[in-house]
Design a protein that fits this description.
By secondary structure, the chain is of the alpha+beta class. It is built from six helices and six strands, in the order ββαββαβαααβα.
Length: 191
C-alpha cells in the first residue's frame, strides 16, 4: 500500500534531517514513530503527505509515485491528523468533521446526505456526536483532537497519518483512541 524508498530531507544542506529512510506499510499495519523531540518524526509525516518536498527517494501508494497523484486524489488516499490546530473562524465540530469530505465533493458542490452520514458515523465511532454543535475554538485540547481524528475518519482514506493522536487526551480517551486505531487497522486501514 505505502512504500517509502531511500527518502532524504533537509531544510539546509548542511543539516540533514532524514537520510535514506525506507519502509513498506500494508493494509492492516500500524507504524509508530518513537523518538525524542526534534529528531524528524513530524518532518517524516509531512514528507509522506507531500507537505515537505523530499530531496531524494520515492514515496508510492499502491505502486504510484505520490508526486504524480493530483492533490484531490491524494486526499482520498491519505488523511492527516496534526499534533494541534486552531481555526480562524468559529466552526462547529460537525463542520470541522465535514471538511474531511471535501475531496469527495466536486468543485462548487455541496455535501450530500451521504457525506453527512459519514461525518456523523465518524463522530459516533469516537463518542463525540453529542458535541456536533460545539464551537471548535472553545473546546479543550483533547476535544479538538477527537474532532480532528473524526475528520480524518470521515475522509475515508485508507492511510491515516496521525501525529501524536493521543496528545491532549485524558487517560480514558487515550485508551479509546488506541482501541479505535486498532479497530481501524483490523478494518484494513494503514496507520
Amino acid at each position: 500500500m505505502l512504500s517509502v524508498n531511500n527518502l532524504s530531507f533537509f531544510y539546509h544542506p548542511d543539516r540533514v534531517i532524514l537520510k535514506d529512510i525506507s519502509f513498506d506499510l500494508s493494509s492492516h499495519d500500524i507504524l509508530c514513530l518513537l523518538g525524542p523531540n526534534g529528531t524528524g518524526k513530524t518532518t517524516l509525516l509531512r514528507c509522506l503527505l507531500s507537505l515537505n518536498h523530499i530531496k531524494t527517494g520515492k514515496i508510492e501508494v499502491d505502486g504510484v509515485n505520490i508526486k504524480k497523484v493530483p492533490i484531490t486524489k491524494r486526499a482520498q488516499m491519505m488523511a492527516y491528523v496534526p499534533q494541534a490546530t486552531s481555526m480562524a473562524f468559529p466552526f462547529e465540530a460537525r463542520e470541522i468533521v465535514m471538511m474531511g469530505r471535501i475531496s469527495h465533493i466536486s468543485t462548487g458542490g455541496r455535501p450530500t446526505n451521504e457525506d453527512r452520514k459519514f461525518a456523523d458515523e465518524a463522530m459516533e465511532k469516537l463518542g463525540i456526536l453529542h458535541m456536533s454543535k460545539a464551537l471548535f475554538n472553545e473546546m479543550s485540547g483533547g476535544e479538538k483532537q477527537m474532532v480532528l481524528v473524526a475528520r480524518a475518519l470521515a475522509q475515508q482514506a485508507k492511510i491515516l497519518v496521525m501525529d501524536e493522536p493521543t496528545a491532549n487526551l485524558d487517560y480514558s480517551n487515550q485508551v479509546k483512541m488506541l482501541l479505535v486505531i486498532r479497530s481501524l487497522a483490523e478494518q484494513g486501514y494503514s496507520i
